[in-house]
């Protein structure tokens, strides 16, 4: 292709880009693709999940600033560009009954209005491919579900200058494909679980599988398997950069790298919308676009 390939990954919080599709992005950067992460919120209401930093007064009092710095480091590691959409983290409500969401947070915004910020970025960056979350958000965090909603509106209407006038949002642009991240799928989880047990190792996925079975979670249709095993180390390095969210000695890293690369050296996606013809299954997010 003579035209530059461009990939936009839309995520809810800083750290989501490193836990969902990071090796894919690193692979495409290595190939010369222009990759942009759109981060909807600053993660202001996120908990400090790394026990090594819990109780750190500075981190607790400056969580927004700290998470921005973590995002800067992860962005450099992955080699991607990154833009903040500027919405405020909704937090993850817990309890029974669930407490109301905080006033002014991302999840309470008008969907069409909030999508305008993403439309503006799409028209500026002009990606052929967008990745985001499915209608369940990947998991039911209100910001992840809202990220899905604005991504769907923006994909459909980035070329609609009546809905989003060119004078305010820039020249129209129509992305060609939209994918849902599906890296935490049953196929991969079972393969890794069995590989660990076959080698006499404890599997970190036993409770996951039991919980999925109890909840009756159905398998999504995986359409696209992107080979990117050689970039798993970069993925993990970017993830560890989000030190408030990830314990480097925690469960994320309990499967040895050699097993990951041998058993499941891909990241997975569900093709949700396409303006080009393609054959399934795919091994490339730009399938049908490169050829045209």
Describe this protein's structure.
- Belongs to the MshB deacetylase family. Mca subfamily.
- 38% of the residues lie in helices and 15% in strands.
- It has 292 residues and is α/β, with parallel strands linked by helices.
- Strands 3-2-1-4-5-7-6 form a seven-stranded mixed beta sheet, sandwiched between helices.
- Helix 4 (63-78) runs antiparallel to helix 10 (232-241) and helix 5 packs across helix 6 (142-157).
- The mean pLDDT is 95.
Offer a quick outline of the entry:
By secondary structure, the chain is an alpha/beta fold. The protein is built from 11 helices and 7 strands. It is globular and about 60 Å long.
Rounded Rg: 19 Å
Helix content: 25-40%
The number of distinct helices, counting runs of at least 4 residues, comes to 11
> What is the CATH H-level superfamily of the largest domain?
LmbE-like
Outline type:
globular
CATH architectural label of the largest domain? 3-Layer(aba) Sandwich
Q: What structural category characterises the helix and strand content? A: alpha/beta
CATH class of the largest domain: Alpha Beta
Biggest sheet strand order reads: 3-2-1-4-5-7-6
Family: Belongs to the MshB deacetylase family. Mca subfamily.
Protein name: Mycothiol S-conjugate amidase
Cofactor: Zn(2+)
Catalytic activity: mycothiol S-conjugate + H2O = an N-acetyl-L-cysteine-S-conjugate + 1D-myo-inositol 2-amino-2-deoxy-alpha-D-glucopyranoside
């Amino acid at each position: 292709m003579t035209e530059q390939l461009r990939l936009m990954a839309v995520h809810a919080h800083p750290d989501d880009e490193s836990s969902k599709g990071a090796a894919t992005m690193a692979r495409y950067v290595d190939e010369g693709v222009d990759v942009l992460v759109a981060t909807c919120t600053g993660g202001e209401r996120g908990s400090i999940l790394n026990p090594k930093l819990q109780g750190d007064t500075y981190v607790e009092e400056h969580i927004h600033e700290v998470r921005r710095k973590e995002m800067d480091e992860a962005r450099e590691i992955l080699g991607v560009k990154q833009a903040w959409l500027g919405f405020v983290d909704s937090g993850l409500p817990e309890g029974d009954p669930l407490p109301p969401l905080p006033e002014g947070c991302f999840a309470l915004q008008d969907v069409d209005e909030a999508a305008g910020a993403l439309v503006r970025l799409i028209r500026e960056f002009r990606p052929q491919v967008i990745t985001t979350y499915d209608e369940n958000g990947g998991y039911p965090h209100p910001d992840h579900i809202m990220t899905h909603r604005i991504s769907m509106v923006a994909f459909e209407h980035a070329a609609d200058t009546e809905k989003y006038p060119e004078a305010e949002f820039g020249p129209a642009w129509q992305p060609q494909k939209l994918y849902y991240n599906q890296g935490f799928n049953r196929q991969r989880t079972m393969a890794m679980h069995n590989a660990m047990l076959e080698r006499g190792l404890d599997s970190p996925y036993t409770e996951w599988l039991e919980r999925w079975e109890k909840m009756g979670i159905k398998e999504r249709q995986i359409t696209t398997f992107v080979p990117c095993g050689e970039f798993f180390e970069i993925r993990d390095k970017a993830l560890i950069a989000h030190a408030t969210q990830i314990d480097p000695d925690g469960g994320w890293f309990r499967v040895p790298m050699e097993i990951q690369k041998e058993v499941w050296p891909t990241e997975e996606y569900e093709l949700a919308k396409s303006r080009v013809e393609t054959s399934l299954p795919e091994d490339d997010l730009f399938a049908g676009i490169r050829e045209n």
